Amino acid sequence: MVKINRYCIGIDVDKKEFKVCLMAIDQAGKQIVKGSRTFLNSTNGYAEFHSWIVKNRKESDASLTITMEATGVYHENLAWYFHGKGFNINVVLALKAKRYLQSLGLRSKTDKIDAQGLGAMGLQQQLEIWQPISTDFLMLRSLTRQVEALQVSKNSLSNQL
Q1: Which residues sit opposite 88 in a β-bridge?
Q2: In whole angstroms, what is the distance from residue 22 CA to residue 27 CA?
């Protein structure tokens, strides 16, 4: 039996759901797709995904990282959830992920292909571990966005008058 050295889960996140692909690399350096699935982008989906990880990660001594694209704000709750569970998270820029997939010769762009490509990227490269920003900064960002939305509404109403 071939021993797994490391696992990486590639995740493609959108507003409603996220697709995952669990990949592993063995002692010979061969990449293997261990499983893939779609989950809802909600707290219940995160808990279901966590159970799926535990079930499919056969060798618990092998390290595991999660690699995902920075997709607006949709990836943030997922990253915070698993960071709180003690997982190593890699958040990469969308352009970097796209260029990596192109370097592999993949021209198609589907969520499943993206998740698999992000998993391969996490296995092959030494990516920077994601560190969450402070809760104060998150609150400030939220308040700034609310002020901006109110200004847009005010301008719209002023134009109507």
Answers
A1: 65
A2: 17
pTM: 0.81
Give the integer Cα–Cα distance in Å for 151 and 14: 28
The Cα 14–Cα 28 span in angstroms is 34
Rounded to whole angstroms, the Cα distance separating 69 from 152 reads 29
Q: How far apart are CA 53 and CA 23, in angstroms?
A: 11
At 21, give phi and psi (nearest 5°): -140, 115
- pLDDT tens digits, residue range 43-63? 999 999 999 999 988 887 788
Residues forming beta bridges with residue 20, ordered by sequence position: 11, 37
> Which tokens go with 58?
């056969």
CA distance linking residue 1 with residue 47, whole number of Å: 31
Measured distance between the N- and C-terminal CA atoms of the chain, rounded to whole angstroms: 75
**Topology of the domain comprising 4-130:** Nucleotidyltransferase; domain 5 (3.30.420)
Summarised one tens digit per residue, pLDDT across range 112-161 is 888 888 998 988 888 888 888 878 887 898 898 899 999 999 999 999 98
Q: Where are the domains of the chain?
A: 4-130, 133-161
